[in-house]
Sequence to fold (442 residues):
Amino acid sequence: MITKDDNELVYEVIHGSISSFEVLIERYQKTVFNIVIRMVNDEETARDLTQDIFIRAFEKMGSFNFRYRFFSWIYRITINTTINYLKSKQKVESLKKVEKLNYVEIPEVDEEERSRKLRLGLRNVRADYRLLLLLKYFFGLSYEEMAEIMEIPEKKIKARLFSAREKLREELLKNDFFNNDR
Amino acid sequence: MTDKKITDLIYRDLETDLTPEEQLKLREYLAVNPEAAKLYSDWKSIKSGLDREKSNMENVDLKQAILEKINMEKYVKQEVKPEIKLAISFWRRPVFRFGFVFLLGVFTGFLLFSFLKVDFSGAKLPTEDMKGTLYDSRSFNDMRVADNILYDSPLARAVFAVRYSTKIVEIRIDLSSLYPITTVIEFDFSNFECLNVQNVNINDQTTCNAAANFVQINNVGDNKFIIQLYNKNSLQHNIDFRILQNDMPLYQNSVTVNKE
Fold:
């Protein structure tokens, strides 16, 4: 079976092929969902947002620019949708004066504990830093691809990622993430 | 080496982006700098943690849920664009349609001006009917004959051919004399206006004067003239002809024009 590339599938979707859209969903739902869940830290919300992202992508498919790659386009929608969600959530949370999350549980399994600490550390850094860290270390994107998705110059991506790393390390230091190493 | 530089080297090392020289430099630096070594080990832990997370990416199948939502709410709204633009017929394009009408208008205007000679200037000039009044014009033949007057003596000869149209009276005069004679053509200035006196063939001893109510020719030798008068009211009038020698009348006659 010949595997069609993303842009071919997009072309077919624009011309009415729903099955091509199914293929695109299959290809990207896992990545999109994993970005979202690590940004919002709630599975149910992540599921809803992932659905919204694909529906939005479907609606805007007609305006897709074939000069760009589909993955950067869908990631951009993902980022915008997630950031918007976080902004609206932040407003609600600031009203409720929810305290910053602190890790108190002590898990029995080391690996599990480290993993939780890492997630917690990620959760406590700024949303835009978190996103950069996820794109870089979780999804292994290059600086160039990140620049395309975020629509900011590669130099700025590098500078921001530098700060993001510092912040993540600070957060992990607070949560004793490195204690187990010594 | 600055902190920023060493930090950058550490990050790049974790991304396996360092050249062998840079790697060697980093190792040497880490060996003597415990703070940098800690940063390096911390980031190794973070990296391994992230890698582990990466391998534990959660699987999800939201295809059905998404498609259901699309089918229900959105799919009907999807506008399918035609793959190939249909060629719009030539006449259906407004630019061609209006362009054609414009060109047709210009062409019609050109026809009106050049062939029909549409006059947009308004009033007609009094000389409008001076059609064919030149000596060799054939239109003189088309005019109605008023009279042909002939004076013939051994020493002088005069022929007056008088013709008229509604507005124009044309008199063709042929004079021949061995001595000076004066020919006077008289008319009423309230009925006629002298439009033109043309010396068709005259010699240097002959003169011709036109006034409001007469034209006088002082003739010696053989000469030809055309005199055109404008009949102001297109009614019947008389034109008098006199031939004089030293102010003594030799001949006198009168012609009526616009007799009908």
In short: Residues 94-116 of chain B form the longest helix (23 residues).
